[in-house]
């Protein structure tokens, strides 16, 4: 049993609309061993190792369903079992995940399964799958256990606890997790910005940040004061608030002198410690004071010695000037029964299902470590001692939950004076979120009557004791923080538009971003050539996946996001956002088929459909593409907007008559008008010949792109004037749309450069080349990506065959598995098979040499169409080309071969009805005349 491939999806994907991991798992010989054949011993051992599996419902949708499935008939296969094990391992580590599905990959790959399961955090999810395989293999009979699958010294209990600790080191802490849950309850999006607890709530310019329970609004000065325990003590004392007397010391002798000066029992603690680390309480002997000093010194260079205040330890949580919760904390302890040793009592306490490793559960397991030994030693005990019945033996000097303490909610009984005291203390320091450590004999009575003291003011207080107390009522500690950061009704999300399709998505996304900018927004745009913030490229490269989406949504300037979403990102990692306001699909054409298991247009459509599946407000669909039109059945968007260039489209016509939204191309006396329909309204928008990107309406593919961009902008609430202005000022210059129908007119001939790299995109540009007024020749530089199927390269050739006077076949810089000139020769052969004469074809594999040759051919009145791969390089080559005198200069370059006609002169002379001009171009005689 081995993992052949693994994909981690961070957002909506083909498999789910939330994060999942997909394993391609090969069972190998274990395909012949379903659970029924493995027998009850295997099943019983698995459930014993992970008792929570007994609650899995599986297809029966009721507790026990999965175990029943393993036992009945032939049982189920180990791929399906691994799915449930990976889910349950995460549950054991404290995560709440439930989703999974397992399917056989295909009939021709027996034993290979697609195992999909939900995850809460990436590394933990991956580790759960790997540990799950080890667990299953360890339970197999030795004779069928895969060799080397389980180390000889492997122990399940140790591996399980190690996994839990591994997961918790990467998980959000209890406090941060509670804030995230509170945000989710308010439908506020969030992003984890690092591997610790730095969280962004909200998108773009609406964002607020927290780190643990420190917010972006927390005063730095206040945090510094709270960290300075001596200064905090002085400030609170100056206001008449109850605080113990303190002395700051730097050596053990100073600590003893300070204790004598203060009198009575004292407490030693680090000057700037937290989480109760290094604190020793209620000590008076020189030996204990010296030991307490050394314990504190491990966490701070300076140590505070303060008077010991007797009573119970309380944490009072104050948020935004209001006391939210009060909790009494009790240090980790055991209660004697007169028969059991302390070690045995600890085992009994740890059997409490509420106790787990670290922050896994409400309570943390007790540990008999060095601190516990010190506490026992103070009362004359060891771990083997047997306390009297009812005797309490403390194993910790502080009551922190992280060290095994317990928490009892006392919010309802706290005295008003104590409540006001906590609020005053926090305001004096200046914190927005704070925990006041208050010692009191009875929290229900006023400190003015019975005494008590404030030990510390804590910045970044933990919330676990309040949201999940050991006893008493849980309190919503996180909600008030979120409400403080986001006032009721305040915006938290920026509008998000996502566009996908085989061709045109980059141009459409750029058009839409330009329109939003004209509408007064600051757009964040992701495209195949980079990330753009307010029109300026900030990151270069193919940025159409989830990483770039996070970049845009994390930028504090952005107030609208336009995401080009490509097939590769969807297949590799899913979408970067859980939902979009407007999602659009332009078309589904043959491209990338045969790669990563996508072999048909229907499968490709299923991938790209994800964009409209997660659209909430509007799904914009190209009604002229049958595969896109079918997607209307898969979206829950409030509105569907159909886009059609066919004014007689029957379905769209009925949709409009029913009050639906649409964008149609209508013929008029002045040309073609882009028209919007919505709720019975007829809105003429713009003549197509007024849109520069359409080349006076001739570039029909950009007419369609403009229609989709207009429909998306309208659905985002952009004003009509801004849409019109945006379309009228967007052109296809290399600056605005690199590689998208870029025109250069500064040579005697016209040059048109495009990134088209599939048959549909190439065909669209070939159509445009036919519609343009060209008095001379049409020359094309043609290629195809090396990882495409031969049939795809044939289709590219078919899209241009017979439409040009000369064809230069090249390859991309990246061969993608092909030989050096394999792609251009396949295309050349396909051109000849479709009637192009061999003499009209040149094979020049290198892109720079091919472009140079095409430019050398160009004469006044010609059109040179260059399908480019290295866009910036090719564009520079085009604009820097010098028509005059270039031939002599080029001929001196040894690396540039002369044009390679496919015919020698003897063969040419034997042909009838053709003529070759001085450039080597071949024409039929009647055309030449």
TrEMBL record:
Q: Answer whether the UniProt record assigns the keyword Methyltransferase to this protein.
A: no
Q: According to the UniProt record, what class of enzyme is this?
A: ligase
Xref: Pfam families: Cyanophycin_syn, GSH-S_ATP, Mur_ligase_C, Mur_ligase_M
Keyword presence, Nucleotide-binding:
yes
Query: According to the UniProt entry, what is the EC number of this protein?
Result: 6.3.2.29, 6.3.2.30
Q: Which UniProt keywords apply?
A: ATP-binding, Ligase, Nucleotide-binding
Return one GO MF term: cyanophycin synthetase activity (L-aspartate-adding)
Role noted for this protein: Catalyzes the ATP-dependent polymerization of arginine and aspartate to multi-L-arginyl-poly-L-aspartic acid (cyanophycin; a water-insoluble reserve polymer).
- NCBIfam families in the cross-refs: cya_phycin_syn, PRK14016.1
| Family of this protein | In the C-terminal section; belongs to the MurCDEF family.
Under what name is this protein listed? Cyanophycin synthetase
């Amino acid at each position: 049993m081995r993992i052949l491939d693994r994909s981690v999806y961070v957002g909506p994907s083909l498999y789910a609309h939330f994060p999942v991991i997909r394993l391609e798992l090969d069972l190998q010989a274990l395909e012949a061993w379903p659970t029924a054949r493995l027998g009850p011993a295997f099943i019983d051992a698995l459930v014993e190792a992970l008792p929570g599996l007994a609650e899995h419902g599986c297809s029966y949708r009721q507790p026990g369903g999965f175990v029943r499935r393993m036992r009945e008939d032939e049982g189920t296969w180990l791929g399906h079992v691994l799915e449930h094990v990976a889910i349950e391992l995460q549950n054991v580590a404290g995560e709440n995940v439930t989703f999974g599905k397992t399917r056989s990959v295909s009939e021709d790959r027996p034993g290979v399964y697609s195992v999909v399961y939900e995850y809460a955090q990436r590394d933990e999810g991956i580790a759960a799958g790997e540990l799950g395989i080890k667990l299953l293999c360890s339970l197999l009979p030795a004779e069928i256990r895969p060799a080397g699958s389980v180390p000889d010294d492997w122990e399940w209990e140790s591996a399980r606890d190690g996994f839990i600790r591994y997961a918790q080191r990467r998980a959000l802490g209890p406090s941060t997790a509670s804030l995230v849950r509170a945000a989710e309850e308010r439908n506020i999006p969030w992003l984890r910005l690092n591997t610790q607890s730095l969280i962004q709530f909200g998108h773009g310019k609406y964002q607020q940040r927290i780190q643990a329970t420190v917010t972006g609004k927390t005063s730095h000065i206040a945090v510094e004061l709270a960290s300075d325990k001596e200064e905090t003590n002085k400030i609170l004392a100056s206001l008449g608030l109850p605080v113990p007397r303190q002395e700051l010391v730097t050596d053990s002798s100073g600590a003893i002198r300070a204790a004598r000066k203060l009198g009575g029992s004292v407490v030693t603690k680090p000057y700037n410690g937290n989480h109760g680390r290094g604190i020793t309480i209620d000590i008076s002997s020189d030996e204990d004071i010296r030991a307490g000093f050394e314990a504190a010194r491990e966490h701070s260079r300076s140590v505070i010695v303060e008077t010991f205040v007797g009573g119970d330890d309380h944490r009072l949580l104050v948020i935004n000037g209001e006391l939210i919760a009060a909790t009494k904390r009790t240090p980790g302890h055991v209660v004697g029964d007169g028969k059991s040793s302390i070690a045995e009592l600890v085992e009994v306490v740890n059997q409490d299902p509420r106790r787990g490793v670290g922050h896994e559960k409400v309570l943390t397991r007790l540990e008999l470590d060095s601190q516990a030994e010190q506490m026992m030693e103070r009362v004359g005990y060891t771990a083997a001692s047997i306390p009297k019945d009812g005797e309490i033996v403390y194993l910790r000097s502080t009551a922190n939950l992280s060290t095994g303490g317990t928490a009892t909610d006392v919010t309802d009984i706290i005295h008003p004076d104590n409540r006001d005291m906590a609020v005053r203390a926090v305001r004096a320091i200046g914190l927005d979120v704070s925990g006041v450590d208050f010692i009191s004999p009875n929290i229900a009575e006023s400190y003015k009557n019975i005494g008590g003291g404030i030990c510390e003011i804590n910045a970044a207080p933990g919330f676990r004791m309040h949201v999940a107390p050991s006893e008493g009522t849980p309190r919503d500690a996180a909600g008030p923080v979120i409400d403080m950061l986001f006032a009721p009704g305040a915006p938290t999300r920026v509008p998000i538009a996502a566009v996908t399709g085989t061709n045109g998505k980059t141009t459409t996304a750029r058009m839409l971003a330009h329109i939003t900018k004209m509408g007064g927004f600051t757009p964040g745009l992701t495209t195949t050539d980079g990330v753009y913030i307010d029109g300026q490229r900030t990151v270069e490269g193919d940025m159409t996946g989830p990483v770039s989406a996070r970049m845009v949504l994390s930028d504090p300037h952005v107030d609208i996001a336009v995401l080009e979403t490509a097939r590769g990102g969807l297949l590799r990692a899913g979408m970067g956002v859980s939902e979009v306001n407007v999602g659009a699909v332009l078309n589904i054409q043959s491209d990338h088929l045969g790669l990563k298991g996508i072999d048909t247009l229907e499968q490709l459509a299923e991938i790209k459909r994800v964009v409209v599946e997660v659209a909430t407000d509007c799904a914009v669909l190209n009604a002229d593409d049958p595969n896109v039109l079918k997607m209307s059945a898969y979206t829950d968007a409030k509105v569907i907007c159909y886009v059609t260039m066919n004014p007689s489209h029957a379905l769209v016509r009925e949709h409009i008559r029913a009050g639906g939204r649409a964008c149609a191309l209508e013929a008029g006396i002045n040309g073609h008008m882009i028209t919007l329909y919505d709720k019975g309204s007829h809105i003429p928008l713009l003549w197509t010949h007024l849109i520069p990107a359409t080349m006076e309406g001739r570039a029909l593919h950009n007419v369609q792109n403009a229609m989709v961009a207009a429909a998306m902008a309208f659905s985002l609430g952009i004003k009509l004037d801004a849409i019109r202005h945006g379309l009228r000022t967007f052109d296809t210059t290399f600056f605005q749309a690199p590689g998208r129908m870029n025109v250069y007119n500064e040579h005697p001939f016209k040059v048109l450069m495009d990134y088209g790299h599939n048959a549909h995109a190439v065909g669209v540009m070939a159509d445009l080349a036919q519609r343009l007024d060209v008095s001379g020749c049409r020359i094309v530089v043609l290629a195809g990506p090396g990882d495409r199927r031969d049939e795809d390269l044939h289709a590219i050739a078919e899209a241009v065959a017979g439409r040009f006077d000369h064809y230069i076949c090249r390859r991309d810089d990246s061969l993608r598995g092909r030989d050096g000139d394999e792609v251009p020769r396949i295309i050349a052969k396909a051109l000849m098979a479709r009637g192009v004469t061999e003499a009209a074809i040149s094979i020049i594999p290198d892109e720079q040499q091919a472009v140079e040759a095409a430019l050398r051919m160009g004469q006044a009145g010609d059109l040179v169409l260059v399908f480019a791969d290295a866009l910036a390089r090719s564009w520079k080559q085009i604009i820097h080309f010098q028509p005059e005198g270039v031939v002599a200069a080029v001929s001196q370059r040894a690396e540039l071969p002369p044009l390679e006609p496919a015919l020698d002169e003897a063969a040419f002379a034997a042909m009838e009805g053709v003529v070759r001009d001085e450039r080597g171009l071949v024409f039929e005689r009647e055309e030449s005349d």
